[in-house]
Amino acid sequence: MDYKLTSKDKLTELAKSNGIETWNELTEFIKNLPYGRNKNRTDFRLVLSEKKGTCSSKHALLKSIADLNNVPNIDLVIGIYRMTELNTPKIGNELTKNSIEFIPEAHCYLKINGKRTDLTSGQSEFMKIEKDIIKEKLIEPNQVAEFKVDYHKNFIKLWLNETKSKFEFEQIWQIREKCIANLTE
């Protein structure tokens, strides 16, 4: 089912300025934008103006526009999953180089009518990480910046402690950042 975007707010108007008239057109447009961090992670308009975004910015934008246009049954989710070189191949071999099986990674996606939907890119397939989901939490779009980062960091610190890892938090976070940089290339 499709929904016409009828709201007169700035976000919906920005989407319409890109020739987008419906929810399905919007989701198709967003998933085909390249992966990349925006200049300001709290300004979702940048996904449309910079023509790129991350899992966080793209899905926060979609949830925001869905809410503004009364598109029903759209939830924004942070899922913590076991990021491996197998389920996230573009991260390169950073984990192998450091003798790490996985790093808990925070990934944002939507639940549309209860079905997990990843619109990060045209190649995104939720099935690749589904069996590696550790924890999920529903959030609001404004939580994809500071809250998501804090939630993720706290999760990793707890994980390092529980697994009695030889790594310090800063080391793991640095390895993780290299993995994410590889995704952008």
UniProtKB/TrEMBL annotation:
Domain of life: Bacteria
Name of the protein in its database record: Transglutaminase-like domain-containing protein
Lineage summary: Bacteria, Pseudomonadati, Bacteroidota, Flavobacteriia, Flavobacteriales
